[in-house]
Amino acid sequence: MYNGDTTQAECREIAGPTRPPGEAPVTRRKALGRTLEVASKVPDATVAFWLAKLLTTAMGESVADALGGTIGRTTALLLGLGAFAAAVTVQLRCRRYSTWAYWITVAMVGIFGTSAADSLHGIGLPGSTALYATALALVFVCWHRSESTLSIHSVNTRRRELFYWAAVVATFALGTAVGDLTADTLGLGYLASGVGFAMLMAVPALAFWKFGMNSVLAFWFAYVVTRPAGASFADWMASPQRRGGLGWGAPLVGAGLALTVICMIAFMAITGRDRNARPPAHRAASESTGSLGNRS
Question: Structurally, how many domains does the chain consist of?
Fold first, then answer.
């Protein structure tokens, strides 16, 4: 049974023609006269996936705020960029999905994305929100034109993975700007914003479950919304009480969330809960074959 453990072999070996139950979705590719199964390098959208996503977004917000307040925003941005570059390099070198490599990269995106969004606050939150929304839209357009799909189940080539991580960075930056926009500019506060975005996350889930919403569209809708949801709750815990927060401070919240994220990654690596038990054929059948979700 697949347990998600990270080994050096995971970052060197390509997935073979057979795989244990619970492994990633695969597509078949002919190479040198033989057929290889190439697994997606992105985990399945399980409950553990969404919980880990919320935790990494919250951690990224707090750690970036703590670094910005300690060493300055510019230095924090450069440090976050370097950490993300190192993490994504390891992720790209892995030939198949690795729980530790993937989620550490996501955590570094959380820190870098927050710092990037904060660095553009000078143009105003509406302006930075519009900028990052445009950037995300361009990534999706280019990705779909190049690959004819935005499905996470098809992230099994270097080009698709680069598109995927570009989209992830854009969603983190956009989510940070949107969360600050609702909390500060619109005056909702961090707790109300967090609750509102958490409720908004249920919309694509309900639409997919009850009304047959395109699975790819539902995934990316929820993925974007998790960022402001997690960041808003992190800001609520860190903000002073006079601003409606708990007053714990960004360094303490960031450290606590970082420890929680490490424990969550270890849990997924041991149990394989970031993988769906359904065989890939069933996943393919459940995924829409429309313009956003056709597999290849």
Answer: 1
